[in-house]
Each structure stands twice: as structure tokens, then as C-alpha cells.
Amino acid sequence: MARRAEAGNRSAGGGVGRIARPLTNPALFEFWEEVFLGGNDTAVLHGGRSSSKTRDTACQLVRLVDHVGVGMRILCIRRFQNRIKDSVYTELKWAINHLGLSDKFEIQKNTIIHIETASEFIFYGTERNIDDIKGTSDVDILWVEEAEKLTEEQWVIIGPTIRKEDSLAILLFNPKFVTDYVWKNFVVNPPPHTVVRKINYSENPFLSQKALRDIAAMEERDPEMFEHVYGGVPLGDSELSIFKRRWLDACVDAHDVLGIDLAGRNVIGFDPADDGEDKCATADKINGVFIDAEDWSSGKDELVQNAKRVWAKANRIKGCVSYDTIGIGAFVGGYIDEQNETEGGDVEHYAFHAGGAVMDGDKPSDPQNDNSPLNKDEYLNLKSQAWANTARKAMLTFNAVTRGQSVKPEDILSFSSSMGAEKLDALFTELCVPWWVETEGKKRVVPKAKLKKDLGVKSHNLADAVIAADNIDLGGQRHYAGMLLSKRKRS
Predict the structure, then answer these.
(1) Which of 156, 186, 198, 338 is most buried, judging by how many CB atoms fall within 10 Å of its CB?
(2) Do 197 and 286 fall within a single domain?
(3) According to the model, what pLDDT value does residue 131 have?
């Protein structure tokens, strides 16, 4: 690790902060420091256009090569590369000049070489040069540009080029679809020793005023396309997606934005781990606002400890627990009762029967449209109804925040920004992955087995915890969110 550690010490910040105008993006200093010093195998930088991803990477690698003091080999690839200027070759040339290092590098027709160390940048296109890439050896750093176009078959071939102990893969891309291989396997489910960072134009200090005007014009003209192009939000694989990312982004601190005080009992949504690969997850809804969510690895034999952990949290906030009863979750209520008895608590608990019948089956599925299908005709089970309810609240909140439409307090979905951008992004990603499928002519949330098979996505535990917490009758208010859960009687 000495090679990258030494380089990282010099490249991540590089003393840039001491000058009036930074040479590289200050927003990414910590990211590059973690990449070079954190012992990671893979670095993923994704987001919308005009975010400085490519230029900052070019600068950091040029600086790294200049400081490391030993020969390195950096393989730069993208899908199509008909001409060398179509590659990051042009960006590297720009970075060398930008950093004032023109006398340190020899820019050849097809390679760029550091004069003192003989470090070299080499360039290939995956579509036509896959065999050449396969035969490339002694690679220290792999830079994949436009990684959203990378297929699993290509990665199986390209990945092994990074064999050295201290090697690193850097993947840059603008997300396209939630079904893309790189999105599924490096953002939704990143492998171990991977650092992931999202960055958008709003963190780019180098954008011109004209660029900012053009971006603002798209935001006004086509908000949905703006979110995809400049917000780095991947498109759902179909319009059947249950949640839209733009809805959820508008839900961050929505109660504050709208100036509406929310109310309700405190709830801990709990999704227990049901197999060895699964995780436990909780979502904390306090006074009508989601303030936290967390997941942790756990085996089925640890249910008692996990139930105690959730009980302690609920007892501390004087709240209740809403839990998924699928599999081993059926036992959670009993363990909470035991804790109440042994610890003298009074934590109420509600069982979410995901596969059970819908509530209020003879009422319209859309409370605002009496002509909408009845709940019993629209949804296959309670889980579908609950997901639809929370998604409806997200949409109504979005319309209120972005379009000024009126909304009832009980229809507001709000997530506190205090959760942090990383946690919110993970949570929103999970909520946006599932889509509607049809069974017996009724809507059903895509089964987790199909998610795993088609997308390689593990169980969306955080999302399930949110749904459990959000769909509970608290206080007897007769609104759509109520009466979706049944209280488990304590013995």
C-alpha cells in the first residue's frame, strides 16, 4: 500500500486549499483521500453532468503519477473509442497543462508517459478492443469512463486486469437505468472495500454562469429530465416503478419547507433479518418525521437480541414498534412482551401482516378519486396497499413542495436532513428499486426473489422498515394511512 498511500497523501489535497482558487474540486478532497489511503479496491464516482467527475479524476491521477516516484501503468477504458481524442486522453492532456506539469510528461500519439518514472496511461475501447484489454497486464489503476454502459460480461473480462496487490479500479458514470449492471453492483450493492461518492453540478465550483443558466433552464423546462441529467437520478426500468426519486428528494425536511407541524406517536419500524444474507433494519418516525434509519447484519438465531435492541430504542423514545411478521418476524411481538414484563416497560407493538388481506377493501384505492378501483380490486395484499400509500404520500408531498399544491398534514412524508446525505441516498435507493407486477389482475410489489434474480439486489430492509413505520394506526385518526396494521395483544 505504500505506493498509493504516499501518492494519496500528496494528491488528495495537494496543498490546493492554500491558493486562492483550487486547481481541483475541494468537494472531492475527502473522497480521494479515502480512495488512496483507505485500502480500497474500487472507487465509484457517480452523479449528473457538469459535476467535475472526469476532470477531477484526470487531475488526481496526473498528480498521483507525478508524485509517486515509481513507474505505474494506468489503463483508461470506455465503451466506444473510435479515435484517441474520444477517450479521456484529451482530459489528461488538459489536466497536465492545468496543473503546470507539461514539462513532466511526454504526450505521444496513443499514450501519455511520465518522463522521469516511465509511468504510462494507455487507452482502449471495450466494444472493439476487449481482447486487447484482456491481454493487458501489470495494471496499477483501471479507469472506466462512462461505466454505466459496462455489462457484466465485459466486467468479467476487464476486472481481472486488476490483479496486483495495490491496484485500484475507478468507475465514473452518469446513472442511466436502475437495472444497469454497474448501478446494481457498485452503488446499490457495492462490493467490500469500495468507496462510493455521488456528486452533482451544485458541488462544482468551476461552472460558468452560462452553464448554470443552461442548467436552470432545463430544470424549469423539464424537471424530470433535469433530475436525471443533472441530478444523477437513474431512470426506472418502467413507469411501473412505485417510488420516483424526485418525489423522495422533495420529502427531505418537507414539513419545514411547507411550514407544517406534524404529529403522531413515535414509531420504530422494524424489519427482522430472515436469512444469513439478510439484514435487520429500523426506521425511526418521531412526531411524524423520519429522523433515522439503520441496518445491521444478523443471523436468525439473534432475533432475541435484535428484539431487545428495538425494544430499548422504542422504550427510550416512549414509542411503539411496527414489525414485519414474515418468517421469524412472527416472534418479535412475544419477545417485546417479555421485555415489558422483565424490564417493567409498556412498549406497544403492531404486526405488519404483509401477505394479509387489504384494509378497507370496499373503499376507493385513491382517497381523492371516488371512481378509482376499490382497494380489494387494486391490491393483492396488505404490503402492496402499504407501499402504495406511502408512495402516494411521497407524490403529494412532492406536488406540495415543488408545485405549491395543498396537502393535508397526514399526507406529508418527511425525512429529516439530519440523517445525512449518504444515509438518505441509501434509503431512497432502496425505496426506488421495487416496481409493480400484476398477479390475479391486481398490483403486487415485485417479489424479493425476483429482485435478487433480475437485479442482484438484496432485500430492501430499510425501505420495508419505513413502510412498516409509516402504515400504522396511531391515535385513531381516520385517514388513509390508518388501520393498515393490527395490534398484537399482549398476554
Answers:
(1) 186
(2) no
(3) 64
- Give 270-284 pLDDT, tens digit per residue: 998 866 567 899 999
What is the domain range of residue 165? 2-203
SS3 (DSSP) at 225: helix
Residue 224 lies in a domain: no
- What does the block give as the cell for 340? 415489558
Residue 290 sits in a domain of what CATH number? Answer: 3.30.420.240
Q: What pLDDT is stored for residue 482 in this prediction?
A: 33
Structure confidence at residue 236 as a pLDDT band (50, 70, 90): low
Give the Cβ contact number of residue 373 at 10 Å: 14
State the CB neighbour count (10 A cutoff) for residue 84.
Answer: 13
Residue where the block lists cell 430492501: 460
What does pLDDT average to over the chain? Answer: 84
Residue ending a domain, choose from 136, 169, 203? 203
pLDDT value for 256 = 97
Q: Assess whether 335 and 266 both reside in one domain.
A: yes
Number of structural domains, the chain?
A: 2
In the numeric block, the cell 461518492 is attached to 197
Task: Give the distance, in angstroms, between the CA of residue 1 and the centroid of all CA atoms in the same chain.
Answer: 29
Q: Are residues 167 and 287 in the same domain?
A: no
Please state, for a pLDDT cut of 90, what percent of the chain lies above it.
52
CATH number of domain containing 11 = 3.40.50.300
Name the amino acid, one letter, at 435. W
Nine-digit cell string for 415: 425525512
User: What amino acid occupies position 228?
Assistant: H
Which residue among 137, 172, 203 closes a domain? 203
Can you spell out the DSSP letters for 253-309? THHHHHT-------EEEEE---STT-EEEEEEEETTEEEEEEEEE--GGGHHHHHHH
- Per-residue pLDDT tens digits for 201-235: 999 999 999 999 999 988 888 777 788 889 988 87
What is d(CA 113, CA 109) in angstroms, rounded to the nearest whole number? 11
